[in-house]
Amino acid sequence: MKLVLASSSPRRLELLGRLGVTPDRIISPDIDESPRKGELPRDYVLRMAQEKAAAVERADDEILVAGDTTVAVGRRILGQAGDAAEQRKFLELVSGRRHHVMSAVCVIAADGKARTKLSDSIVKFKRFEASEIEAYIATGEGQGKAGGYAIQGTAEAFVTWMSGSYSGIMGLPLYETRNLLISAGYPLG
């Protein structure tokens, strides 16, 4: 059974490796990732994972995995920080407060059946000093990341509390992914 990873994220590739899985092909789906007007974060991240999966061609003998992660402050979706100004804004929003990190994974089995699961985790950061935000931005590790930070990097030192899936916060919830792969017939130990 062959596996296709529909993602260019090095974190998703690393996380699949933790399951002992190496994709046979990696393809980055090209879709519009803009939220729809009034779309809730939960609906958005599920739709993104499903659209990414549907955007990649798959052979009959292939299982496909796609995922998406978003950070939500209330109903507000914080996508990938495009530049330092946006990252600063995101970090100011999550400073000292709880926020949700939602990670959806969609697996399409060899028979074409798609299954999707959602992991919803909560993270609380300390209240940031302006100098801490600037120092973090200078590391570059949060650039292009949902919410403007990477939990697996130096941002982890700012976490005062979290609940949920650490791998989901990183970008691919392993529990949900493992179960979806097994239900799709992918051989896991």
TrEMBL record:
Co-factor(s): a divalent metal cation
Residues at the catalytic site: 68
UniProt keyword NADP, yes or no: no
Enzyme Commission numbers on file: 3.6.1.9
Major location category of this protein: cytoplasm
Top class in the EC scheme: hydrolase
Residues annotated as site: Important for substrate specificity: 11, 69, 152
Pfam families from the UniProt entry: Maf
Function statement: Nucleoside triphosphate pyrophosphatase that hydrolyzes dTTP and UTP. May have a dual role in cell division arrest and in preventing the incorporation of modified nucleotides into cellular nucleic acids.
Protein name in the entry: dTTP/UTP pyrophosphatase
Source organism per UniProt: Parasphingorhabdus flavimaris
Name of encoding gene: maf
